[in-house]
Every structure is written in structure tokens, then in C-alpha cells.
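writing this on my phone so excuse typos. first protein, seq and then structure
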Amino acid sequence: MSTPTEISDGRLVELIRSRQSMSIAEVGEACGVTATAVRQRLTRLMEQGLVERATHRQGRGRPEHRYSVTERARRQAGNNYADLAVVLWTELRQVKNDEVRRGLLERVATQLTEMYRGQIQGATSWDRLESLQSVLAERRVPVEVGGSRDQPVLRVHDCPYPELAARDRGICSMERMMIADLLDTPVRLAQCRLDGDTCCQFETKRPSDTITGLSRDATTPEATPAEASCGCQHG
């Protein structure tokens, strides 16, 4: 029999998802592991919010516990929309009218903002960035908060939209708009990994900055070199 460390969490979640629900005995038989190993792994997955347990009674016999994946696990498992996202983004960028295209870009950023807004807590930009860091960490986006409390920065070490960014650097503009909306403060892209920098660095407004130079609207001539090179200056 295999040891508990040989069981992959992802494999077990996918197995249960494909079977709708399973008992400990069924999981053990399918994976070739002991009931103890299965219980340990299922307990951890329940603590992570990926698996839930329900009690089923069959006649007068002893009730049986059956395990199924949660809605959270289904969303994670079904989050394979890369091809669709690339197609939709490409079509958006093909819109000829600059004003219409910019408006669509802002609407996409606004919709992403609304997805995260309820999870962002804190009264200051630093606190809200730390909250955003936690939210992105759950989505396996490696970020860190740095700088100072007066001018915090968000460093993104790996792009959350790699396929889109590789085709169109304008995705950076949308990401910057979203961060600015979540922080409710102007933000600029000071560094970009696509330019060879070690990370994408989003900086909040310095005391000497004007709202014009760092506003949500990236059409001003004060856009940084990183923003201009990624197409942010033109929306």
C-alpha cells in the first residue's frame, strides 16, 4: 500500500469530482492506499475548503460518510479559460475607435475590481495592498508589498495573465486600472517584467505627484516609460 505522502491533493480532488461523491473505502480502493491515509488527506482538503462531507443512511445499517468537492474546488478545477480570454482580448484590442476601445478596457477593469472589492480591507493604501496580496496569493499570484507606508508599492513577480501579456502588453494597463480602483488612489506602472525588470512594480502616488500624472486614465503625457511601452498610454 502507498504512504499518505504519495497521494496528490490535486489527483484526489479530481477523482472525487469525476465520481460526484465517494466514500473512504472507495477512495482507498481507487488509489490503492489505506483508510488512514485517505482520512488524513480528506481532513486536510476539508480544512482547505475543497472537499465537504455528508452523511448518507441506507436502511437500518450504519450511516456512511460520503465526500464531494465544494463549489470552490469546482471553480478552481474549471478555471481553464486561457484560450477564450486570448480571443476576447484580441477582439477588444481590434476595436478601431480609440474612445470605444478605452471605454471597453475600463469596463473590464471595473468588472475585475468588483470581483475583488468585497475582499479588500483596510483604511490606508498600505493596508489595502496587504489585503490584495492575500487575495492574489489564494490565486497563486506571487506578489509582495514593499516601499513605505506613505508610498507603498506592489511587486508582481509573475504575470497573472501570461498568455495575454505575451500577445498584447496593453493588459498591463487594465491591471493598473484595477489596482488603482481597489486602492482608491492613483497608481502607475514603474517597472515591467516584459522590459526585462525582475518584477512588475505598481507604485501609489507620491506626495509630489499630481492626480493628472497618475490618474486612472492613462492617456496623459506623464505616463512612465514602462506604461508607454506596454501600450498603457493609449488605453
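second protein below, same order as before
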Amino acid sequence: MSTLVCFHAHPDDEAMTTAGTMALAADAGHRVVLVVATRGEEGEVAPGVLGAGVELGDHRSDEVLAAAAAIGIHRVEFLGYRDSGMAGEDTNAHPECFAAADVEQAAMRLAAILREEAADVITVYDEHGGYGHPDHIQVHRVGIRAAELAEVGTVYEATIDRDHLIALMRARPDDLGDDSPLPEDPDDLNLGVPGHLITTRVDVTSVIERKRAAMRAHGSQIPEDSFFLRMPEDAYAMAFGTEWFTRRGAAPGIAETALPL
């Protein structure tokens, strides 16, 4: 049995990017650990979602635990930082925000969990954090340094195959909907990395209902009428049925279909 640790910035990030890979690993008998840097205090939330006196960070913490149960995750840990908000917002200057944290200190917190779990593989994000969110970029920096400190030799950068998504946007434009976070013109898409940089494509269609259930658990961020949950099943499978990674240290062009657990 191996141990996979997935490091994410906010509750709901795990559902979007690595839920299927984690579910497959758990089903294969491996230990799966989710570490979340923040509790997502700066997320946008529709009126009426939060109960009286409930803080968003506490609510989103409960949501990630529900998502973890759907996926089959064995342990969830929070690194103890605050959500920084989107780039350029005043919240970037909060003294406890993750994006402004000392990388070495944050890496030491994460490394302690990696050592405790005797982690074999860790996932972080690509150097742009997928789409430029400052907390996601910090996950890249902190996760790589923590792997060095804990001597975890296998590091994967979770990302998006930009070419695949552009092709899908062109082939299925009617599936996007008015509330899609994607640009109207596929050529304006600036998510993930070009397809030739991807080293690992994991087919997660066998567990895609659990991935969708994990998304649904994050109702404060992904309401039932959202673009993500309204997508037809076949379109959802095309968009989310593969999870993409780049293995650090590997030459582009290798064609892995699973993480080495």
C-alpha cells in the first residue's frame, strides 16, 4: 500500500482537479490524504446559503469533509492559513493569508504531515496555479519545497490540458451556458498548460459520479444550478473525465495513465 497526498489551496479545489485520481487510489487500497492550505474564507457565496452566525470558512470546511467522504479520502488536514482572495484584492495583504506566507515555514508545516504519513507521492499545482490564483501559485511553491524537506521523490503538478479544453469549447459551445467561467472565445483561454507538456492523463470516468458528488458537496461554491452541475453527462465526462498532471523531472511527451502508487 502506498500513500498519496494531494495538496490544495481551498475547499472545492480537490473536487475539480484530483477527485477522480484520489478515488481510484482509495479503491486500489492506497491511503489518500488531502491537505488544504486555507478554509476558503474569501469565496463568493449566494445569499441564504450560510446559516445564522456561521462563518464561510467553517461552512466550507464542513463541505470539504463531505466531499472527502464521497471520494473515499482517509484523512483531511488544514494547513492553517487564510484564503488570500483573487490577485489584486485587498485581502492579499492580510497577515495570515497563504499567498503572503513564508514559503519555508509553510513548507515545514506540510512536510511534517508528509513525514507522518510516509508519503510516496504528492500532488501540487503547475507553476501558474492553473489559472493564476495567488494561493494556487503558493501551493506550487510550498508543495515542492515540502517534498524536498520530507524527501518525497515523486511530485506531480495537477493541471489542465489547455488544448483539450479549447477543442471541447469549439465542439460543444452550447454546453457552456451563460454562467460559464470560461471565455467566450476559446483562443482567450489561459488555463493549465499546452497538451504537449502533459506527462500523465488519468481516466477517471469509472468514478466520475463520485467526482460529481464531491463537486455537489461544495454547495456554497457550486450550487445545483451552476454550469458545472447542469452540464449534460456526456459533456461532463469529456470535460472532467480525465485528470491531467505533469510529473516533475520527467521529459514532456511520456504517456502515463496513472500515478505510480
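The mean pLDDT is 91. thats all i got for now
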